[in-house]
Amino acid sequence: MDEIAMSNVSLSFETVKGTFKALEQISFSLKRGDNLSLIGESGSGKSTIAKALIGLERIDEGSILYDSVDISKLKLKK
């Protein structure tokens, strides 16, 4: 089916000023052939979404599904 979906994804970072919520309850799905544009101000989470989708950022909550496989639960190889 070739589908990518983020469901209720949240991700935060610890900073010297405390916890920074980069993503909060983000949800969307894309099927093969769909297009996605991420538009927003600097610091609004565009790069964080992209990094989470390819596994470079680990999410705190929610799921990221590729054809029904939750990649957010996969272990990273070193």
UniProtKB/TrEMBL annotation:
Keywords: ATP-binding, Nucleotide-binding, Transport. The keyword ATP-binding applies. Coiled coil: none annotated. Residues 23-73 form the ABC transporter domain. SUPFAM superfamilies: P-loop containing nucleoside triphosphate hydrolases. One of its GO terms (molecular function) is ATP hydrolysis activity. It comes from the Bacteria. Pfam families: ABC_tran (PF00005). Belongs to the ABC transporter superfamily. This is Oligopeptide ABC transporter, ATP-binding protein AppF domain protein.
